[in-house]
Amino acid sequence: MKKRLTPEEFVQIAREVPRDERVPYAFEKRIMAHITSSPALDPLSLWNRALWRAVAPCFGIMLIAFAVSFSHHDEIAADSDVDLDNAVLAPPDAGFDLSV
Amino acid sequence: MIAFVRGGQTEKFEILVIRYQPKIFGVVRRYARREPEVQDIVQEIFLKVFQKLETFRADAPFEHWLMRLAVRTCYDFLRQHQRNREYNVSDLGDSENNSNVLERSSAEPKATERSAAARELVEAILAQLSPAARMVITLLEIEERSIKEIAKLTGWSETLVKVRAFRARAEMKKALAKIPVEKYL
Questions:
Q1: Contact B177/A4, CB-based, under 8 Å?
Q2: What are phi and psi for residue A4, nearest 5 degrees?
Q3: Are B121 and B105 in contact (CB under 8 A)?
Q4: So what's the architecture of B87-185 in CATH?
Q5: What is the DSSP string of B61-77?
């Protein structure tokens, strides 16, 4: 039968492993180089960011406006259909001059 | 020192880095194995410290705040790299390079080699755990921190820490079951 490590044995082994606190040479210089080289914000990039953030709400407003105008368009279309029917199916004596 | 940095003397931050980087490297090396990854994580931690220094309230020691940030960054790293982790535990007993970690730890008397073998074994087991399980096992079992401390470090509730600890122990048992220890005997 194969023997396995118990959790307690494993934890004991893990606790005995010393913490590795070695630091690479001049690592702090690397950190400071990153901090000092970060570009300062310019007004143009802020404006650019604001414009991109406005895209989603503008798109939402566009969809709402489209939905509202589309619902009104149905009413107008219905009236147009009635007018077309009236024009096409109008009786001959409705005022058309066919004597030409 | 923190007041100087907040006041605009950025160069003083280097002193903070020099003071705390050994400890941060010690923490990060429990969660990442490859040295480039370790250095990237430590760098990210210190950059976050610099960016968030304004939010540090002096109601607790700076080191506690720093450790909290470090632990959470390590946890984020574990979650991001969870899918990339493919550590074949059976290689511990089969491959030429990692062969028989346990046998070496018992047969070779040199402390450094035994320590390296133990470190490999610990890393092999921990790498099989989920990020939350690895975090809890490391903090609770290996570093022997209290539930309350872990809750503060991770931002989890104490109940969540206990639940995760229970699940983590089950995961650890499963991971240990895969290790062939017969050569150790």
A1: yes
A2: -120, 155
A3: yes
A4: Orthogonal Bundle (1.10)
A5: -HHHHHHHHHHHHHHHH
> Two tokens at A80?
């147009």
Cα separation, B134 vs B127, in Å, equals 8
Instruction: State which CATH number among 1.10.3720.10, 1.10.238.10, 1.10.1740.10, 1.10.10.10 fits the domain covering B1-84.
Output: 1.10.1740.10
Q: What distance in Å separates residue A8's CA from the closest CA in chain B?
A: 9
**Residues in A touching B122 (Cβ below 8 Å):** 10, 13-14, 17
Which are the contacts of B183, defined by CB distance < 8 A and separation ≥ 6? B93, B100, B102, B103
A14: contact with B, CB 8 A cutoff: yes
Q: What is the pLDDT of residue B142?
A: 94
Q: What is the pLDDT of residues B130-148, one digit of tens each?
A: 999 999 999 999 999 999 9
Counts of helices then strands in chain B (DSSP H, E): 10, 0
Domain ranges of chain B: 1-84, 87-185
User: What is the pLDDT of chain B when averaged over all its residues?
Assistant: 82
Q: Flag whether the pTM goes above 0.90.
A: no
What is the DSSP code (8-state) at residue B138? Answer: I
In terms of residues, how long is chain A?
100
CB contact under 8 A, A7 and B173: yes
Q: Cα separation of B51 and B185, whole Å?
A: 52
